[in-house]
């Protein structure tokens, strides 16, 4: 869902009859992690790839949520299960190549010499998807 243009409560109500989702995958982090707690059903699972912030976990506690923080780079940095992660990435690449998974890329693309502009775009909150820097 587009958390900037849709209200969490209305989205959850229209898609789950107000019960919430059994699993929520957050790739935004920060305040959106709190939105993820709001979108989750009782005893649901919330997974985030961006947990570098201080947030109140009380909403997760009161719903009995299970919070999973995924930092895929960590095992690779410590030479743990690299083959497994390589296979996960290979499987994902095939899904992308087959058109099953379509990454959301922000426009415009930036040249490497415009790295400051790309970072400003990312920090502005106006980017929709991943900010692309051509190397």
What distinguishing features does this structure have?
single chain; 135 residues; alpha/beta; three-stranded parallel β-sheet; two-stranded parallel sheet; 6 helices; 41% helix
Please give a quick description of this structure.
With 135 residues, the protein is of the alpha/beta class. It is 41% helix and 17% strand. It is globular and about 45 Å long.
3D structure, described in words:
The protein is an alpha/beta fold. The chain is built from six helices and five strands. The protein is globular. The two termini are 30 Å apart.
Class by alpha and beta content? alpha/beta
Order of helices and strands: HEHEHEHHEHE
Strand order within the widest beta sheet: 1-2-3
Quaternary structure annotation: single chain
Biggest beta-sheet profile: 3 strands, parallel
- Weakly predicted, low-confidence segments: none
Number of strands: 5
Averaging pLDDT over every residue, what do you get?
A: 88
Shape: globular
Kindly estimate the percentage of residues that lie in beta strands according to DSSP.
15-25%
Distance between the termini: 30 Å
